[in-house]
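As a warm-up, study this chain.
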Amino acid sequence: MKKTLKAVALGVALSLCVGLLGACQSKKETEKKWTAPSGTGEETTTEATTTEEETTTTTTAETFEEGYPVDVTDIYGTTTTIKAKPKRVVSLSPACTELVYFLGQESTLVGRTSACNYPESIASVESIGDIMSPDAEKIVSLNPDIVLTDSTMTPEATVKQLRELGLTVVILNEGTTFDGVYAKIESAGKIFHEDAKAAELVSGMKADLASVQDAIKDVKLHPSVYYVVGFGESGDWTATGDSFINDIITMAGGDNIAKNGQYYSYNAEDLISQDPNIIILPSWADGTFQTTAPYSNLTAVKEGNIIVLDSTDTLDRQGPRNVEAVEMLAKAFFPECFEQEKAA
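Now compare it with the structure written out below.
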């Protein structure tokens, strides 16, 4: 049985008024005209002194537009202050690009990576290079209010370079659990002062997720599953237990054999030993994986229990479309639970 599935993701108002010059002038006038009459024990002041009393040094506090400033702390402990709603945004991550779109802020995007492909209209936004080697000079030339990334693939040196160049870089990475997806959306909502929209997105995701899980609530047997992220000479890579993708597989009713692994790393020996019921393959690996030893010895390969994904975007990109991935996998694992829906 071979299944192919398609996967449908501030300017600063700064006003500082200083009346130092006026205050200094008033003080000089007072020093010249002030007198202390003898024998009275009292001090009087001239009109100039009255002028001094009425002249004050006025400093207004820094003012911000509604909803700002906003502090965003990333998983690395770096806190960034957003002082106004971003009007020019560069995204270094396809997932961030999708999130900006879902928050209704697509018009703010002035730069994106070559891997950003959703929605299709994003193609008209200028590319700043690929994820691993974005063009820093190009990014600076776009004069962004903020640079967004959530990808651990964005080189640390690039982030450091952009910050040293004076750019505001915010890392929105909450990728270890599915709940982190909600936290990421909410953080992005604060950045754009779109808290209500973010809450709406999260609420919709939770409702859709509940619907899928309700459909499979009576399932007794959960298939063991392995998701191929990479294999062969470059190493074996999969969605381990410290990834939100692991939660997607679990919520879809699967038992991820790599749930006890970390950092996406696995090994072929454990894969063969676990011998999962179902293999999930990205389309680029279809054919090659099945014919490469030792993977060719897996029962799922021999019996054709392979789920080939035309696109892994909804599964790999942390954002609103992740619920689509849960539904996609649930339907592949338990087609019988969705037969009525299919008939309708």
